[in-house]
Amino acid sequence: MPALLLLVDDDPKLVQLMGRLLGDLGRIRFATSGEAALRQARAERPDLILLDAEMPGMNGFDTCAALKAAPELNDVPVIFVTSHTDLDHEVLGFSVGAADFIHKPVSEPILRARVTTQLRIKQLSDELRRLASTDALTDLPNRRAFDAMLAREWARALREAEPLCGLMVDVDRFKDYNDLYGHPAGDVCLHSVAQALRGALLRPTDLVARYGGEEFALLLPNTSREGGCLVAERLLQAVFDLRLPHERGVVDGTVSISIGVACSDETPLGPGDLGSAPGEGSAELMLRADRALYLAKQHGRARAWMAEPRPEAKGVTAAPADRRS
Asked: Domain range holding 294?
């Protein structure tokens, strides 16, 4: 997809001029105030922001500082466009996170050269981040990426009083699979299971990651206990539908999975749930999911189990688990 450039200046004529000069480098969005720039950036994350330093209300320096304080926007490069040429303004701009400066009146060659350079740097940085947060075997996010999203989503769930579901998934009798078919076949199996899990998620906000070995972890924002159970059933079915042969498998001689489900709506969320250290509550959510996974395996595998179920709740088992040979 073409890069997205956000042009911010209280002079509409200058914004239109820069838009014409940069139109072939990507998609263009406009804002004429710092407040509008923040709203636009949160609604549609840009790849680069060109920001006027002096604007009424929220000036460019405050806007840049607010952008860098937002976790979802702090890696977006900001180029200040300013009539100031003194060293103090440049030092201030760099101190709040600016990537570069362009002085007014705007020169087309300088504007295009500096925008092109920052877009190239951003593309390379994005690729490095992607590689650092991606599991090479399954092409899923890795444990590091999962932990980062868990911390963000837990904080958001607390802030907005929304439920959050965490799932732990384990491939049943995977050591036996490796012993029977060899490690290369085991790698293919894990990749296939990973893609089945990813394909079973219906919302872009849901995340599945490789947690380690044959374990996967899922995070379902704004999902209730009941919703988590429905997703678990869909995951069980998706892996069963692969029909990967497993001589010592639990279900019809095929590969299956076991799932532990934990949801934050089992107990009321409040600021105290974070505990004394950041992330303590979110870690507890996944620990409960892991304990539920252990119970799912204890009760025969090829099923999902809800953490700390209410007295009337039972283990959630998809249809495939009822057809064991």
From this structure: 143-322
Tokens for 288? Answer: 């409960």
Could you report the per-residue pLDDT of 175-188, keeping only the tens digit for each?
999 999 999 999 99
- State whether the Cα torsion 45-51-53-56 is positive or negative: negative
Tell me, yes or no, whether 100 lies in a domain. yes
Kindly state the tokens that stand for 105: 């009146």
Dihedral Cα 253, 215, 208, 301, nearest 10 deg: 40
Same domain, 156 and 18: no
Specify if 193 maps to a domain: yes
Question: How many other C-beta atoms lie within 10 A of the C-beta of residue 297?
Answer: 19
Beta-carbon neighbour count of residue 54 at 10 Å? Answer: 14
**Using 50, 70 and 90 to split pLDDT, how confident is the model at 269?**
very low
Q: Which residue has the tokens 């007295």?
A: 311
Q: How confident is the model at residue 63 (pLDDT cuts 50, 70, 90)?
A: very high
**Contact at 8 Å (CB) between 303 and 257?**
no
Residue pLDDT, tens place only, 83-111: 888 888 889 999 999 999 999 999 999 99
Give the number of other Cβ atoms within 10 Å of residue 158's Cβ. Answer: 19
Can you tell me the distance from the alpha carbon of 158 to that of 176, in angstroms, rounded to the nearest whole number? 41
Residues 6+ apart with CB under 8 A from 93: 53, 60, 61, 64, 80, 82, 101
Active-site annotation, residues: 214
